[in-house]
C-alpha cells in the first residue's frame, strides 16, 4: 500500500465495524413508503425538481418533473412512446428560441431553492449572471437547454408550457480530444394522471465532431444537436439499461465510431 | 427420515437490508457532511430498493456493488434536488433508538483530523467519477470489478480510470502538502 493509499484510507473517517446494524423495523417503514408512492421515482433515479405541472390538451402528452443524474435503471420502456411534436431529428433553433429557452432555464435554475443541509448546493451556488447556453436542443415545442457557468452545468427540459425539469452538477472536464464525453444522463418523470418519462443526454464533443447520434435499445436513432463542442438530445420514455444506449459519432473526415454511451461518462 | 426440502427463496430486499445495511450506513457516513444527511440517504436508498425489488441482483457478489450504485445515484439526487419529499432519516434514527448514539457524526470526525481534511480536499478537486471510483475501492473495499459494477463501467475501463485517478490524487495531495509547507503561519 502506498502512502497515498494509506492517507486515503485514513480519510474514510468511519469504519463499518463500529456501526450498528440497521433496525429490522425500519425496512417495514421503507416498504410502506414505497408502496404508498410507487410511481414517484424511486427508480434508482433521482427525480427532477422542482416539479411544475406540465399540461397539454392532447391526451397522452403530459408531465411534471423529476430529474436524474444517470440513465435510469428501470425495466421495460426501451421504445420511445409517442409524444406529440417530438421528432428524432432536432430543429435548427432560431436565435429567439435560444434566447427564450436560455432565459427560462436560468430563471428556473435560479428559482430552485438550495436545500437546507445539502452541502453540494451550498458549495456550488447558482450564479445567473455567469450562465451561457452551451447547447440548445429543440424538437418542435420541446427544448433541452444546457447552461454552463460558475463551475457548474445545468440543464432544463422545457415543454409548451415552460420548464418542466431542471438539474445541475459540477462542470466536467473540458472537451475530449476525440469523440464525445457524456456529462449529463438523466430521466425526467412526468405525471399528469398518467406517468410519462423523458430521457436526456448531453456532454462535450471534440472539435472535429460533426454528428452525434444515439442508438436506443430498440434500435431507434435520435440525432443530437451539436454546437461548439457540446451535444444534447432527449427522447420520450425511460431508458431501461444505461449500457444499452450507444452513441454514434461522425467526425469531419467521415469516420464513424460507435461506443456504449455510459462508457463516455 | 424425511427428505430435507430446499429452503424457500429469501426475500432479496430483506437479505440486502440485513447483510449490507450496515455497509450502506458506512458508505453514507463517509460521503455525507453530517449524520442526518447520511441517515436520509440510507432510508431513501431502501425506499428505492423496495420499489424495485426485481432489480436486486440474484448474484450475491453483485449485491453490494449494486447497492452502492443505487446509493450513488440517490446521493446525487439528494444533493441536486431541491425538494425532498420527507425526512425519512428521522424515522430511521428513531428506529435505531439508543443505537443512534453509536452512529458517528462525520462532521465532528473530520474537524478532528487534519490529514483527512487535506485528503478530502484533494478528492474534492477530482471529477465525481474519479472520486467515487477511488473511494469505492479504498473505503468500501470493492474490487475494481465491483466498483465497475457500481458505476456501470466495463471492468477494463474501471481499471484504467482507477490508475489515472490514483495518479491525479497523488498529484493533488503533493500540491496541497507543498502549499501547506510554504503557507505563512496563521497568527492568532
UniProtKB/TrEMBL annotation, chain A:
This is Uncharacterized protein. It comes from Geodermatophilus dictyosporus.
From TrEMBL, chain B:
Keywords: Sigma factor, Transcription, Transcription regulation. InterPro entries: RNA_pol_sigma-70-like (IPR039425), RNA_pol_sigma-70_dom (IPR014284), RNA_pol_sigma70_r2 (IPR007627), RNA_pol_sigma70_r4_t2 (IPR013249), RNA_pol_sigma_r2 (IPR013325), RNA_pol_sigma_r3/r4-like (IPR013324), WH-like_DNA-bd_sf (IPR036388). One of its GO terms (biological process) is DNA-templated transcription initiation. One of its GO terms (molecular function) is DNA binding. It comes from the Bacteria. Residues 16-83 form the RNA polymerase sigma-70 region domain. PANTHER family: RNA POLYMERASE ECF-TYPE SIGMA FACTO (PTHR43133), RNA POLYMERASE SIGMA FACTOR RFAY-RELATED (PTHR43133:SF25). Belongs to the sigma-70 factor family. ECF subfamily. This is RNA polymerase sigma-70 factor, ECF subfamily. The lineage of its organism: Bacteria, Bacillati, Actinomycetota, Actinomycetes, Geodermatophilales.
